[in-house]
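Milestone 3.1: sequence recovery, worked example.
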């Protein structure tokens, strides 16, 4: 049992609002600005897919419920460029809060273009320093899970969290929301 939970198995309230069965509620919890300058790409695999890797240089976490940094060289994002034009990402990074807590973030999600020309433009942007692709042209969404010690941040391990991301020239900016 979680050390921060009372003996009766209940947990302290983290959010003041709660989703209803017919009306979900999202509450903003933090954003993370990740920097990836080291990239690798395995194109044209026999499956028709490609595999990209970007390695975490660093990151800054800011928000009402979590502040700190993503620790450089603690992980990366291993994206599968699927033949249907969808990039399926699977990333892991170690986060460190301002008060020194370590949190392992496992982030999965999708990036795809709203038109057929968008994903080739994004690949050019990521791997060849091509021109920026506007946020409106793509869908970048994430669904992370977390691992941390019992205590101040363990609420991350019992809430569904979703992220809305923006691709940047040297990484990503993702804003995260808890489904309360």
């Amino acid at each position: 049992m979680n050390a921060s939970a009372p003996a009766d198995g209940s947990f302290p309230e983290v959010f003041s609002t709660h989703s209803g069965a017919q009306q979900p509620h999202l509450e903003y919890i933090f954003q993370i600005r990740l920097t990836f300058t080291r990239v690798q790409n395995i194109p044209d695999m026999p499956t028709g897919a490609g595999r990209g890797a970007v390695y975490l240089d660093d990151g800054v976490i800011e928000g009402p419920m979590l502040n700190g940094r993503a620790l450089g060289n603690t992980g990366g994002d291993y994206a599968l460029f699927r033949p249907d034009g969808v990039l399926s990402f699977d990333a892991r990074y170690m986060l460190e809060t301002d008060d020194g807590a370590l949190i392992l973030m496992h982030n999965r999600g999708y990036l795809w273009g709203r038109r057929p020309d968008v994903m080739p433009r994004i690949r050019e942007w990521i791997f060849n320093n091509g021109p920026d692709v506007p946020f409106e042209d793509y869908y970048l969404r994430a669904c992370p899970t977390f691992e941390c010690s019992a205590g101040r941040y363990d609420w991350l391990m019992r809430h569904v969290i979703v992220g809305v991301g923006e691709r940047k020239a040297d990484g990503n900016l993702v804003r995260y929301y808890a489904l309360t």
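Residues 26-179 form a domain with the Porin fold (CATH 2.40.160.20). The CA atoms of residues 49 and 83 lie 5 Å apart.
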